[in-house]
Amino acid sequence: MDCYQNQGKAYPGGNEYNVSIFARRLGAQAAFIGCFGKDFYSGANYALALQAGVDLSRCRHYPEECGMAMVTLEQGDRTFLGSNNGGVTGRHPVRLDEADLRFLEKYDITVSDRYSRMAPAEFAKLAAKGIPLAYDFGDEEPDELTWAVLPHCTVAFFSCSHRKDQEIDDLAQKGLAAGCRAVVMTMGARGARTYARGMDDPVCCAARVGPVLDTMGAGDSFLTAFLVTAIQKFALAPQGSGEWMECMQAGTQFAFENCGFYGSIGYGLPCPQDSEYQNIQFKRR
To answer: CATH fold of 2-273, please?
Structure first.
């Protein structure tokens, strides 16, 4: 849940959770393997995903609280103030078993990110089964986790609005050298770039210009529409700059549309009262 202090509302969300719902909105089949708690907000997240048509049959359930992030909006741009370190997910990151892997083999791609708290060994299990992986590394500086996960990625996503062009180029080339089929760099107002194996130059896509209400979920919506287009139109193997550009344009358009309402997926709920979550110590992430 993303708790907007300035509104007194909590909006459902969470990286792969968002991706599964966005995929359904784009007409794709989607499942989510994650952890739910037993509190009101966990129940709301679960119900909204079911309503969207997401398969939740492989999810885990624990008697704990939903992950919470405290957020404020400044001219449409969301700023994270702190979190409870992922709540139930932070304490119980998913470990994939054989039944999970058989389940994931039915899908075109699996999506994860660093806030899933999953260990690199879990992604090695996917690679061993030949299951394609898209991974969102976010805007953090490359670290031990980055270099451990990259060799298992089919498509890697990085948020790079704060990075200089040469830094972006260098990081993308390292991703390709690690074995990625493509490395996608989103750069905010500077647009996005895709570096693909076998191509000498990146494909660059301009950002959409227009009014923005809330950027929460923009990266997840871009990633989802990019991948859905790559899968449905090009069997996850776009060739040439034109096909990669089509994927980026789909991501850019869907992300722009998603910036037109509050929260990652909408559905504002009342923020929790302090008395309800006394055991949560919010820390800057």
So the answer is: UDP-N-acetylmuramoyl-L-alanine:D-glutamate ligase (3.40.1190)
pLDDT in tens, 179-221: 999 999 999 989 999 999 999 999 999 999 999 899 999 999 9
* pTM, full prediction: 0.93
Domain residue spans in the chain? 2-273
Q: For 113-124, give the DSSP string.
A: EGGG---HHHHH
Q: How far is CA 15 from CA 20, 26, 33, 51, 117, in A?
A: 9, 17, 12, 18, 12
Distance CA(205)–CA(198), nearest Å, equals 19
Strands 182-186 and 192-196: antiparallel
Amino acid at 131: I
Nearest to 7 by CA among 275, 242, 268, 278: 268
